[in-house]
Specification:
7-stranded mixed sheet
């Protein structure tokens, strides 16, 4: 791979709709949050930053990710302003990624436990292939039924725009902007289970059912 792609796993949400912290909830022998993180660390990302609240003990991260061979693949950074909205956590991640020389970042949400390693690698390979061919892209995004969804790979050319986001704005708000949306591509997926996010207890119960189905199909 000719570019340095840094993962940003956003894990600083308030879980307000759940009523309690959702990241430690158990699913498939791990936790909601760790499930996403494990996929990131297993992918071809050069490094992954997990952006959490200052008060987060990170005890929801699975034990295998703390082992020496895996710990070198990720870092944790805290967002003191995470309660103000997702934009503040994203900006914190972008700042840190830029400091370690990222050519691009790949943004993930910590409450999407069925993210696939192959999806992450698809975006990285596509971006790399376009650069090798001399084609500069601002982003490559996953898309489901015509709607852009995380994970989203964003080039450093858009870092200044991301750093201006405010409130609950996320990366998708940049890609809807006429100034930026033309210089990117989308990778379409058909299995909506990969994009399922856990916001409520009903979602969590559904996620447990989906996890059984996905394991049966492997």
């Amino acid at each position: 791979m000719s570019v340095k792609v840094i993962g940003i796993c956003l894990a600083a949400g308030n879980s307000s709709r759940m009523g309690k912290d959702k990241l430690p909830l158990q699913i498939g022998g791990t936790t909601i949050g760790s499930s996403v993180f494990e996929k990131a660390v297993s992918s071809e990302l050069n490094h992954t930053l997990i952006v959490s609240k200052e008060s987060d003990s990170l005890d929801w991260i699975g034990t295998k990710l703390w082992k020496l061979e895996n710990k070198a693949k990720w870092s944790s950074v805290s967002s003191s302003e995470s309660m103000k909205g997702q934009a503040f956590s994203l900006r914190r991640g972008i700042e840190c990624a830029r400091q370690i020389g990222a050519d691009a970042v790949l943004i993930m949400l910590a409450d999407q436990p069925f993210l696939q390693v192959e999806m992450v690698n698809d975006l990285i390979h596509s971006y790399d292939d376009h650069l090798i061919a001399g084609e500069s892209l601002d982003y490559i995004a996953s898309r489901l039924a015509g709607v852009i969804q995380p994970p989203i790979l964003i080039s450093r050319t858009l870092f200044p725009a991301l750093l201006k986001l405010d409130g609950d704005q996320g990366a998708r708000s940049i890609l809807r902007d006429e100034r930026f949306k033309q210089n990117g591509i989308c990778v379409d997926y058909e299995d909506r289970r990969y994009f399922f996010d856990v916001d409520t207890m009903d979602d969590y119960r559904k996620a447990e059912e989906l996890n059984v189905c996905l394991n049966q199909n492997r």
